Amino acid sequence: MMKICLVRSAFILTIFALAKVSGCKDSFMKATLVRPTGRKIKKNCTWVASRPSTRCTFKHATDFCPETCSDFEPDCESDVRARFKIPFIGWRRCIWVSRQPILRCAIKGISNLCRATCGSLPTSAPTMCSTDALCGADVATTYGPLECDPSGLELMLLDQYSHSDDGETTDVMVRLYGPAEVTQAAALVIVAPHGGDLEPTYMTTRTTDDEVYCPEDDDCVVSSDSYTKEIATKIANSVIENYCKVPYLVINELHRSKMDANRERPEATFDDPEAINAWQNFHDFIQDAQNAIQSQFGTIVNEDDIEGIIGILFDVHGYAGYDWDDSDGGKFIQWGYRLSKETLDQDPSTGHCPVDSDLADSSTRGSFTHARALPDQSLECQVRGPQSLGQRMNELLPMTSDAMCGASLPSFDYQDPKAISSNALYCGDDDGTCHYYSGGFDLEVHERHDWESISGIHMNTVQAELPRCLRWATDESRDTVHDEVANNLSIVLCSFLRDLFGADANTC
Ligand SMILES: [Zn+2]
Q1: Is residue 272 part of a domain?
Q2: What is the whole-number distance in angstroms between the Cα of residue 225 and the centre of ligand 1?
Q3: In the record, which residues are listed under signal peptide (predicted)?
Q4: 206 with 57, same domain?
Q5: How far is the CA of 319 from the centre of ligand 1 (A)?
Q6: Which of 126, 144, 169 is the endpoint of a domain?
Q7: How far is the CA of 465 from the centre of ligand 1 (A)?
Q8: Of 98-112, 325-339, 444-458, where does the model show the most confidence?
Q9: Do 165 and 111 have their domain in common?
Q10: Which run of H or of E encompasses 308?
Q11: How many angstroms does the Cα of residue 318 sit away from the middle of ligand 1?
């Protein structure tokens, strides 16, 4: 397997100079091959490679697996005639690609199969760019649930901020949960800033177009990210169930029309004194959690001499995405690293490709400012390589009856948010450009320990915008889908943490 990856990488590096050679590599998809008896079988090149002398003689095998079957004179210039299975789209032939070649040749792996169709395009560019060469194509290891006994472990309420207006009713506005003892902790802070539903009448109601507090071009948002509080809590409980460690969890109980915890203070609070208190406590609670994780897991100095806390902050959101493919929005989980879709744009015609080289001069752009320079790590691979959070989630699909619901962007399968969000296959907006959410205030300030001055020790942050198809699902399936999402995210976050900091760090 490793040898194949190296060969593929070499092809990727020469792909721009030698366009015709680009089609001469094994496909990662399944294809319909035909045995000498005439029987059709659906297999991939790994299967062919295990007995090439026989299987390369099956119809379509040679052209589908030209590296494996290099002794059988593969045709590297024509379209493959077999049907092949495109992840999340289904079984197609090159004739389907030829109907919308500009869009469809951009789907990962297609230009390698529909060589004539895609090779005749003026910019017959693969979307894989150099991520493949940098990070390889091997699936990441999954650190699966442990055989451990979680009894006795639970999310404890460690702190809260509440307000009592008339001495009778008490409104709890912000809550911090975590382990009873710090030795039980997981190196993970889960944050839900937009899932609250508390709307005290004594607080100012935020509006979308307030002239003082809402920036001119960017109106304030006052609608909540439904079910993100519930899902964030389930993720925390899944970590306990699966790994017998207790993460920290910070919940904003206030509805977004009262306080938006993921904005700078004026826009967040409209200068309402109670909203300011809640906002301050929300962020202080996150810092408290980071302090606890630092005391338990320590820090590590990376190759850029940046000291970072061993752990991750995960900020949970949801997007309506009215501009995506239908009224329910897109199906992607949008991962945010404070890298815009322009920064993530893979445009080989301009040579704009790897995140790493683009960010070489800057230590402040994007999140993962600490993780990116740990030994043998790369921001490009962390964001959309096979070991990225997004790709790890893809490996656990499906999560609902719709296989596409919850596919991750960016990920190894879907590397380029700009291409995806202007691809008619996914984006149904009239002007052909859907919105990609790259992360906000929480990530910006909590990437550093001293959040108020954005300084001090680093801690890696990432956000996920969950699609409506996962958050709402259906009335009947909602609870089950939330369980599935939370379970998968706990596995993905813990596997990522373990690969990043090593098994000895005992992060999860
Ligand atoms: Zn949100």
Answers
A1: yes
A2: 6
A3: 1-23
A4: no
A5: 7
A6: 126
A7: 7
A8: 444-458
A9: no
A10: strand 307-318
A11: 5
Tokens of 89: 């789209």
How many residues can be counted in the chain? 508
CA dist 170 and 269 (Å) reads 20
| CA 461 vs CA 280, 312, 341, 383: distances in Å | 19, 6, 18, 12
Give the pLDDT confidence of 222-276 residue by residue, as tens digits: 999 999 999 999 999 999 999 999 999 999 999 999 999 999 999 999 999 999 9
Cα 284 to ligand 1 centre (Å) = 19
166 or 94, higher pLDDT: 94
What tokens does 7 get?
A: 């060969």
Q: Are residues 98 and 173 in the same domain?
A: no
What integer is the mean pLDDT of 142-162? 95
What's residue 470's pLDDT?
96
What's the whole-model pTM score?
A: 0.75
**Residue 59 Cα to ligand 1 middle (Å):** 51
The answer to whether position 99 is within a domain reads yes
461 C-alpha vs ligand 1 centroid, how far in Å? Answer: 15
- Separation of CA 135 and ligand 1 centre (Å): 31
Looking at the structure, tell me whether residues 118 and 163 fall in a common domain: no
Does any domain span residue 277? Answer: yes
Asked if pLDDT for residue 333 goes beyond 70, the answer is yes
Ligand 1 centroid to residue 272 C-alpha, Å: 21
Residue 367 alpha carbon to ligand 1 centre in Å: 17
| Percent of the chain residues topping a pLDDT of 70 | 85
How far apart are the CA of 329 and the centre of ligand 1, in A? 15
Shared domain for 103 and 175, answered yes or no, is: no
Count the domains in the chain. 2
DSSP string computed for 197-216: -B--TTSPPP-TT-TTTS-S
**What is the whole-number distance in angstroms between the Cα of residue 471 and the centre of ligand 1?**
13
153-170 tens-digit pLDDT: 999 999 999 998 777 789
Shared domain check, 119 and 178? no
Are residues 215 and 66 both part of a single domain? no
Q: How far is the CA of 316 from the centre of ligand 1 (A)?
A: 7
In a domain, 139, yes or no: no
Which DSSP letter does residue 24 get?
Answer: -
In the DSSP assignment, the letter for residue 455 is: E
